[in-house]
Design brief:
About 40% of the residues lie in helices and about 15% in strands. By secondary structure, it is of the alpha/beta class. The strands form three sheets. It has a six-stranded mixed beta sheet with strand order 1-2-3-4-5-6. It has a five-stranded mixed beta sheet with strand order 7-8-9-10-11, with no helix packed on it. A two-stranded antiparallel ribbon has the order 12-13. The longest helix has 22 residues, at about 270-290. The protein is globular, with a radius of gyration of 20 Å. It starts with 10 loop residues before the first helix and ends with a strand. Bound molecules: zinc ion.
Amino acid sequence: MSDDAAGGPDPVAESFADARAAGIHPIAVPTPFLVGRVNCYLIEDDPLTLVDTGPNSGKSLDDLEQSLRELGHRIEDLGLIVISHQHMDHLGLLEIIARRSRAEVAALDVLAPYLEDFSASATADDEFSMGVMRRHGVPSELATALGAVGAAFRAFGSSGRVSTPLREGEELTLRDRTLAVLHRPGHSPSDTVFWDERRRILIAGDHLLARISSNPLISRPLGQPAGSGADPGERPHALVQYIASLRLTREMPAQLVLGGHGPPVRDHAALIDERFRMTQRRAGKVRRLLEAGPQTAYDLASQMWGNVAVTQAFLTISEVLGHLDLLIADGRVTEDAGAEITRFAAT
Ligand SMILES: [Zn+2]
């Protein structure tokens, strides 16, 4: 994180000053994804700890090594690698870094089997997403094409052996700090946040981001063998789950929330309230669109996002289904899942 082209201080880098003072150094590693750089965090403690790794690419590895060098460390010095969740921009260098450092690898217990064979897990995820897309009205050829795009990106991920499986509520103890391990599913089923109660710092992965509202992606439930092909008709209620997770986080007396992308969050309760208001507005919009008659999630996504509903079909379908789940829970929408393609109607 160097000064910007104009020579002035980088405001994002500056915004991490108090994290650095607490021995937590953000390392913004480049990714090939739309989201841009991913924040990994080096915790200068014993063991020397890296939270998240960045994706599996030569450029990411070079950048990470360079940043570690600037901080006076090498990959070989790492004693612990912690993974915040199952997305490849956060864990793709795991295999390489774990091999070179021989560090312990800590992740939520339910994530361990997923990471044993990342490629098989990601393949099963892509099949599940294609099933969800077809069921919700995405043309079959488009679903297939998008599945192929997913497969093309798989090499940015990584398998890994979790040596320290973490249970929700347990503590990760380093020499100078204790991090409570909290499972906060929603953005992904394995979202895990790490809470330093003494310093009131939350390391949050993609659970809460300052500048992006985290996508409540509909994901294949964890704990199912990769070959079992979870039923895409019985979709996980990712947004409902995410809201429940955010409610828990909102009540925490955090002063600093360190996210997986962008600057830190200082007033997390206000930001979470803003996210809740956006959800309410979007649910209202979905409900109004349904007044024209029963529609699929893809119909709704196309009206809300135009061409983005094509190029980002799974993401936009996930958004729409999340809001439909909320409306169904409120009795304002009904779901007809009897046919091959599910339609929703206003009550
Ligand atoms: Zn993520």
